[in-house]
Automatic annotation (TrEMBL):
GO BP, sorted A to Z: secondary metabolic process
SUPFAM superfamilies: Metallo-dependent hydrolases
PANTHER family referenced in this protein's UniProt entry, alphabetically: 2-AMINO-3-CARBOXYLMUCONATE-6-SEMIALDEHYDE DECARBOXYLASE, ISO-OROTATE DECARBOXYLASE (EUROFUNG)
Highest taxon, organism lineage: Bacteria
Keyword Acyltransferase included in the entry's annotation: no
Domain Amidohydrolase-related as annotated: residue spans: 3-312
UniProt KW keywords: Hydrolase, Lyase
A GO CC annotation given for this chain: cytoplasm
Molecular function as annotated in GO: carboxy-lyase activity; hydrolase activity
InterPro entries associated with the record: ACMSD, Amidohydro-rel, Metal_Hydrolase
Record protein name field: Amidohydrolase
């Protein structure tokens, strides 16, 4: 079963709601083909069929309902999750969903996580690499990890598009081509150095974009963590291999090979980044895995790893 774990869907109504609560960056997300109209879904399905993608797991990130005002965050999260529930109910063979959470409000996030998984049937939750500038390893979010650990739940981590909180990225037109993978790298290292993967071993964490630069930096981290971050409970490479990584690499074969050699091919799951990669770029997101890896590893990454990780019923058919 070929499952794409990195795919987005939102409507103009949802983006309008975010705008009304103070977001200022939704303009570029409109008209991308990410909507839920009949025309947009038909085009999405045809594109997926052209490369054998059976199923996509939807997430609203980076258009997440993270707001300082709790009522805004809760309303937006419910709006997103109700939208996804309706789409999945109509197309269950095509879609599953990661829940949007009203962070940084941990108690409200736990309530919405319970609703999304127990009532709406979602397969996990999605967050961004930071929550309004706070690391995911912030102790305030420990109850969320505890609940996901109790459930053996999935947490999908996607860049926030906040330039890794540095003007050296944001003021030099590098938000997505450099900033996003740097956010992936930083978030993964925050989790590793804080011991989150070992403290919550049942949480199935999926990092975007092959973990950013992590495949190139992991040996360096292993060599240096004892003096720079001595509280780290295990080697960074051991912690990294407790997590999973989607294959969005913009078709760069050396990056896919480096990730497979660093983490193990069993820790990679297919991602396309639809709609940001569409048409031939999306097709390349699939064919590049076949081109980069040995046939057995490519088959595992494309058609087996995600189904096993997500424990979808169809995986046992």
């Amino acid at each position: 079963m070929r499952i794409d774990v990195h795919a987005h869907l939102w409507t103009d109504d949802y983006l309008d709601l975010l705008d009304s609560y103070g977001r200022t960056d939704t303009g570029t997300q409109r008209g991308t083909g990410a909507g839920a109209t009949e025309q947009e879904l038909a085009a999405r399905f045809a594109l997926n069929d052209s490369v054998g993608i059976d199923h996509q797991v939807l997430s609203v990130s980076p258009q997440v309902p993270h707001f300082a005002e709790q009522r805004h965050a809760v309303h937006a999260a419910k709006h997103a999750n109700d939208l996804y529930a309706s789409v999945v109910a109509r197309w269950p063979e095509r879609f599953s969903a990661f829940a949007a959470l009203p962070l940084p409000h941990t108690d409200a996030a736990l309530t919405e996580l319970t609703r999304a998984i127990d009532e709406l049937g979602f397969v996990g939750a999605a967050v961004t690499t930071d929550v309004l500038g706070r690391t995911l390893a912030d102790p305030a979010f420990a109850p969320l990890f505890e609940e996901l650990d109790r459930r053996a739940g999935v947490l999908y981590v996607h860049p926030s598009g906040h330039d890794a909180d540095t003007p050296l990225i944001g003021e030099h037109r590098m938000r997505w081509m450099v900033g996003a993978p740097m956010e992936d790298t930083i978030a993964a290292m925050h989790l590793i150095l804080a011991g989150v993967p070992s403290r919550y071993p049942n949480v199935r964490i999926i990092n975007s974009h092959l973990g950013g630069a992590l495949p190139m930096l992991l040996q360096r981290a292993d060599n240096q963590y004892r003096w720079e971050s001595p509280e780290t409970p295990e080697k960074p490479s051991d912690a990294a291999r407790r997590m999973w990584f989607d294959t969005v690499s913009h078709g760069h074969l050396p990056a896919i090979r480096a990730a497979a050699e660093t983490f193990g091919a069993d820790r990679l799951v297919l991602g396309t980044d639809f709609p940001y990669q569409s048409g031939d770029l999306l097709r390349r997101a699939v064919t590049s895995v076949r081109d980069a890896l040995a046939p057995a590893d490519a088959s595992a990454v494309l058609d087996h790893n995600a189904a096993a990780l997500l424990r979808l019923p169809a995986a046992t058919n």
